[in-house]
Design goal:
Distance between the termini: 37 Å
Order of helices and strands: HHHHHHHHHHHHH
């Protein structure tokens, strides 16, 4: 054990101080080939999707509703607004619950508490549960309380359950990264533990919390399985106007269009896929910007 603890990790690269024996170089070449293959497949897929969807990347994609009779003028207006409302509901449900749970587990729960250990173990396991299981849980919850399944609120609950473990884990990591001296200094000046948490620890952990939450929401924006299980609509010609309104989302609409044989629907599916991809990249860019901005200000 002592030998393992004192051993140093040598870089596997062709750098000046890297390993240069034949076995390491062959292994490194294999890694490069795997990386190149993955990038090549991704580039080809994106190029094909863009080529197919380029004719429909116009204003009608944003302003028109879907249509079964005129696919050449159909759009994704209801899906875009539905995605925005469902993701907004998801954020409103998951963010306070996730941050509060993480703050309790990291700042107040005893390390020896069996309850805290039980919750922590379940949070870690729930992060690996398939997305469709959360759709089943949300459907069961909706039936129990008498809530219609195919509503914005039910969709938000399903996606909030989906990303809640990720929010808790990322928030705990962000809180853990805050220097202990900040807490000790606040407590030494007479602040209560609650004041220390709300005025010192949480503000210092905002970059990590925001980054983890945005990345979790970007995952939720691309999920279709739990919403399809809840009965998310595939043909919507109205704007969602509340939490109890019917809805569709971009992944559901793409799934519906991609299953149709007409070329116009295939073009629509490709154009909507590009739009969804741009949205997800923008969300990830915002997360990176927030992280870098707060890191540079420290």
């Amino acid at each position: 054990m002592a030998a393992i603890a004192t051993s140093t990790i040598r870089p596997l690269s062709a750098a000046a101080h890297g390993e240069k024996n034949l076995r390491s170089i062959v292994f490194l070449i294999g890694l490069w080939l795997c990386l190149a293959f993955g990038i090549l497949v991704l580039v080809v897929l994106l190029f094909e999707t863009f080529q197919e969807g380029r004719p429909r990347l116009d204003g009608m994609l944003f302003t028109n509703y879907t249509s079964q009779l005129r696919p050449e003028t159909a759009g994704a207006r209801a899906a875009i607004l539905g995605s925005a409302m469902v993701i907004g509901t998801t954020a409103a449900l998951a963010l306070p619950l996730g941050v509060a749970a993480a703050a309790y587990l990291e700042e107040f729960a005893s390390r020896e508490s069996k309850f805290a250990k039980f919750v922590e173990l379940n949070v870690q396991n729930l992060a690996a549960v398939p997305a469709i299981i959360y759709g089943m849980l949300a459907a069961a919850l909706a039936l129990t309380v008498g809530l219609p399944k195919n509503t914005v609120l039910a969709g938000g609950i399903a996606l909030a359950l989906l990303i809640l473990p990720v929010v808790i884990v990322s928030t705990r990591e962000a809180l853990r990264a805050v220097p202990r001296e900040i807490r000790q200094g606040s407590l030494a000046l007479g602040a209560t533990p609650i004041q220390t948490l709300t005025r010192q620890t949480l503000p210092a952990a905002v970059p990590g919390i925001a980054t983890g939450t945005i990345l979790a929401l970007s995952r939720a924006a691309g999920e279709a399985a739990p919403l399809l299980l809840l009965g998310g609509l595939v043909f919507v010609q109205f704007d969602p106007n509340g939490l109890l309104s019917g809805f569709t989302t971009m992944p559901i609409q793409i799934f519906n269009w991609a299953g149709r044989s007409q070329e116009e629907f295939q073009q629509l599916a490709a154009a909507a896929s590009i739009l969804l991809l741009v949205l997800l990249i923008a969300m990830n860019a915002v997360a990176i910007f927030i992280r870098n901005k707060f890191a540079s200000e420290r």
